[in-house]
Amino acid sequence: MPTNRLSNGIRLSYDDHGGHSGQGVPLVLVHGHPFDRSLWDPQVRALSGTHRVITFDLRGYGASAAPEGEANAPVTDFGDFARDLVALLDHLGVARCALGGVSMGGQIVMDAYGRFPERIAGVLLADTSPATDTEAGKAFRRETAERLLAEGMKGYAEEVLHKMAAPYNEEAAAHVLRMMLAAPPEGAAAALRARAERPDYRPVLPRVTVPALVVVGRDDTYTPVADAEAMHAALPDSRLCVIERAAHLPNLERPEEFNAAVRDWLARLA
């Protein structure tokens, strides 16, 4: 679990699984809010035997949160996440990668493709949406940020848990709750404020010239199947996978189905 200061001055904690002997381009996976890189544990276990899989904690989350007394600037602009990502690729010597993300992580993937498409060989967008927030949505994110700073993560985590992972997926829900309770409120709040001001990524989608995979849980209420279908229609070369009996995090809730779709996508890249 290395933690290194990158060329942009930010310290990120990451795992580089499978070494350099994996097939094809490395797979880089971006977690969502308010999680950490352990979100991708089922994918690491399933894929790192055949592929180089890189997971990392976003700035302000997990082990990438600043230790007390050490400066590690919180995210202020949503594009900071993509800039951190390319700095990590440079640090690891990765010229081009397959890039995937879930929820907020998917929005980071879209932001990254808009900024440095030459570094991305394929995109995986899981349970995410390209559209900007409404004014009400922006206000809600800002209010939630203030709530997290005032109250901590517990109340929020308990309220949203079964929208993140459906109650019939008990093991996944327990993992999700652990991640949310461990999330630093300062990092989560900063990300919410930055996310409220993110741009509209819908114009990016028709410009994605690499193979894309769109995945969504059938029971996702945050980003429903209709949103995934719209992204699939906008992407020039994409496949859509709807996973039954899963909510917002099908990679944890139904890992076998999710991993099969990812393997098929990676084979297309090869």
TrEMBL record:
Q: Which UniProt keywords apply?
A: Hydrolase
Where in the numbering of this chain does the AB hydrolase-1 domain appear? 27-261
Q: Pfam families, from UniProt?
A: Abhydrolase_6
A single Gene Ontology molecular function, please? hydrolase activity
Q: Which residues form a coiled coil?
A: none
Q: Which InterPro entries match?
A: AB_hydrolase_1 (IPR000073), AB_hydrolase_fold (IPR029058), AB_hydrolase_sf (IPR050266)
Q: Using the record, list the residue span of the signal peptide; answer none if the entry has no such feature.
A: none
Q: Which PANTHER family match?
A: AB HYDROLASE SUPERFAMILY PROTEIN YCLE, MONOACYLGLYCEROL LIPASE
Q: What is this protein called?
A: Alpha/beta fold hydrolase
Q: Which organism is it from?
A: Streptomyces flavofungini
Give the source lineage, highest ranks first: Bacteria, Bacillati, Actinomycetota, Actinomycetes, Kitasatosporales
